[in-house]
Amino acid sequence: MIERADFGFADIEKGVPMPRDAIFRIFSMSKPITAAGLMILFDEGKFKLDDKLSAFIPEFESTPVYMPDGDSYRLVPQERALTIRHLLTHTSGIAYNGRGIPFLESLFNNSGVRSQEQTLQEQVSKLAAIPLAFQPGTAWQYGYSLDAAGYLIEVMTGQPLDRFLKERLFDPLGMTDTGFFVPEEKLDRLTALYRMVDGKLVNAGGDGFTAPPSLFAGGSGLVSTMNDYVRFSEMLLNGGILNGKRILTEKAVKLIVTDQLPENAKGPRPDFMHGLGGVVDRGTGEYGWSGACSTYFRIDPQNHLLILTMTQFSPNSHETYGVEFRNCIRGGFER
Fold first, then answer.
1. d(CA 44, CA 156)
2. pTM for the whole thing?
3. pLDDT per residue over 309-331, tens digit each?
4. What pLDDT band is residue 94 in, cutting at 50, 70 and 90?
5. φ, ψ at 104 (rounded to 5°)
6. For 226-279, how does the pLDDT look when each residue is reduced to its tens digit (9 = 90+)?
7. At how many degrees (to 10) do helices 226-237 and 250-257 cross?
């Protein structure tokens, strides 16, 4: 049984109530979708999680690792080759920025890796030229790993990422409003994005998603709806099936929603666990993630429970309502 409620406005200034088919920028909630897309190819025997990434994207074979050395640094070879598991668990050493290290910051700032006016192949080639922030498999660092995983899909299939996800994931699941941009005929359903300025909500203006992009960012590039993301989440809860259609094997889903961190990888907390493309709660077994504009989801396979909240506020403030809502639901559920 699914219980749902819609509150507030899709556009405050215009007084537009939040419609049930509102389209949201889900940003990093794209990551679990890209991970699931890649695991479709896992089921087809295209790769194993511990395969070397360089077997598919040769540029990463020679990517060095940044190592601090007193007041300076050294660039050293990878001690253990970067693998697909490392990508899907953010233990690759591929970050979003230079982690406060001037040398790496300078490379990120001047490489063009953040440009939206490039293809996924071009972006990944630039990423492969930037030293890894640590030896693969030894630490956890949020970054472009799932974007590289999206390119891996392109390499393995010969298809652009958008087409692959549509044909193999979105269409079979009936996710009719999920994609890398909002078509013109649906723009009236795209919710406005807000931020707080001097204690007041202010429209943050447009930020893309209204035209086909050059870059299919598997880590942050999707828009979706509540209905569509529920379908995706239900498929995971059902062990890879929705409405009689099998998308993933039970084995693939179990790998996605359970801890897959390499044995020696250190997360940001002692209790930190990470599946493929999303975090895993050590206490409850929940799997999920959030997005930069305050979207949030958790699934609990053990209790067949799904919690999904979406709004459009930047920077991410899901802690102020998504986590509180989750805690209320779990509190009642566990009594």
1. 11
2. 0.96
3. 999 999 888 777 889 989 988 87
4. very high
5. -70, -40
6. 999 999 999 999 999 999 999 999 999 999 999 999 988 988 888 899 999 999
7. 110
Nearest to 266 by CA among 98, 91, 66: 91
114/207 Cα distance (integer angstroms):
14
Query: Per the structure block, which two tokens stand in for 328?
Result: 């209320």
What is the 3-state secondary structure of the chain? CCCCCCCCEEECCCCEECCCCCEEEEECCHHHHHHHHHHHHHHCCCCCCCCEHHHCCHHHHHCCEEEEECCEEEEECCCCCCEHHHHHCCCCCCCCCCCCCHHHHHHHHHHCCCCCCCCHHHHHHHHHCCCECCCCCCECCCCCHHHHHHHHHHHHHCCCHHHHHHHHHHHHHCCCCCECCCCHHHHHHECCCEEEECCEEEECCCCCCCCCCCCCCCCCCEEECHHHHHHHHHHHHCCCEECCEECCCHHHHHHHHCCCCCCCCECCCCCCEECCCCEECCCCCCEEEECCCCCEEEEECCCCEEEEECCCECCCCHHHCHHHHHHHHHHHHHC
Q: Is the pLDDT of residue 123 over 60?
A: yes
Q: What is the pLDDT of residues 39-92, one digit of tens each?
A: 999 999 999 999 999 999 999 999 999 999 988 899 999 999 999 999 999 999
Q: Across the chain, what does the average pLDDT equal?
A: 94
pLDDT category, 334, cuts 50, 70, 90? low
Of 57, 8, 295, 22, nearest in space to 156 by CA: 57
Residue 241 sits at φ, ψ, to 5 deg, of -120, 145
Longest dimension (CA), the chain: 60
Q: Which residues pair with 67 in a beta bridge?
A: 74
How many angstroms separate the CA atoms of 193 and 158, rounded?
35
